[in-house]
Design brief:
The protein is α/β, with parallel strands linked by helices. The protein has helices at residues 30-41, 55-64, 84-91, 96-99, 113-119, 135-140; strands at residues 21-26, 47-52, 70-75, 103-108, 125-130. The chain is globular, with a radius of gyration of 14 Å. The N and C termini lie far apart (28 Å).
Length: 147
């Protein structure tokens, strides 16, 4: 499986008739969370953003909320306690109903090819982006609102 390394993605992240796209950001850095949220807000797309500083808290939310509505997870790799790869392994063990329709993009400062190769081993990972997220890329994460 090849990872998408593109700036614009097709409409598979949100249902075609969605009014907004629920995005979960998982990153231990407050500044990165703030900047990414700003880029999503300024993208012109109606993103509903859930932000988590701890991967285990985000995983608990997905596990405990049957109809969480998350379409896209922007996931950092390097985090304390539970890193991005541990999150991915645990996420893929959730019941299918909890994972259905959720796509994961790694949004990380790591440009290490070994990290990209490791990420490609997870079925749920659909892309690998290097921080910072810019407004054009944020706008291209989904086109579901324009259809």
């Amino acid at each position: 499986m090849g990872l998408l390394a593109v700036t614009v993605f097709d409409s598979f992240f949100c249902p075609p008739n969605a009014m907004s796209c629920r995005v979960m950001m998982v990153d231990d850095n407050d500044n990165d969370l703030l900047f990414t949220r700003l880029m999503l807000q300024r993208s012109g797309v109606d993103y509903e953003v859930l932000a988590y500083e701890r991967a285990e808290q985000a995983l608990r939310y997905l596990s405990d909320t049957p109809h969480h509505g998350v379409s896209l997870i922007l996931l950092d790799i390097n985090m304390p306690v539970m890193n991005g790869f541990a999150f991915l392994a645990a996420f893929e063990q959730l019941p299918p109903a909890q994972r259905e329709g959720v796509r994961v993009l790694l949004l990380t400062s790591s440009s290490d090819p070994a990290d990209q190769a490791r990420a490609a081993q997870f079925d749920c990972v659909k892309g690998y982006l290097t921080k910072p997220l810019d407004k054009v890329t944020a706008a291209g994460l989904t086109r579901c609102l324009s259809t």
